[in-house]
Design a protein that fits this description.
Number of domains: 1
Number of helices: 6
Order of helices and strands: HHHHHH
Shape: globular
Radius of gyration: 17 Å
Oligomer: single chain
Number of strands: 0
Largest sheet: none
Strand content: under 5%
Distance between the termini: 56 Å
Length: 104
């Protein structure tokens, strides 16, 4: 039961949430929720295509197995999380300073 819930989060929530927070920060909440679900489905579909699209990628990645999907999804989510944290490392103060300089 717990594994299915974690799988649901990794497929339908986490990648889309991270992508939405990286690219669409200023959107309203309702649009962000829709973007989270849609971008998660698109991200997971792209991951599936990368893992087993043709014979060459199948030989490199091992194809679509439960373990490969978990490992590659966790790695991709970790990369997205790392980029999001790197992007927001200065906090809100640094963003305000940058915006003031743009309007002067």
């Amino acid at each position: 039961m717990i594994l299915q819930f974690l799988g649901f989060l990794f497929v339908f929530v986490v990648p889309g949430f991270l992508l939405t927070m990286i690219f669409f920060k200023d959107e309203p909440l309702l649009e962000k929720i829709a973007l989270v679900v849609l971008m998660s489905i698109g991200f997971t579909t792209a991951l599936g295509v990368i893992l087993g699209f043709n014979e060459f990628t199948y030989r490199i990645t091992g194809g679509l197995s439960r373990m490969n999907v978990w490992v590659y999804s966790a790695a991709a989510n970790a990369l997205l999380l790392g980029y999001y944290l790197y992007q927001n490392r200065g906090g809100k103060k640094s963003r305000k300073r940058k915006s003031r300089h743009l309007y002067k």
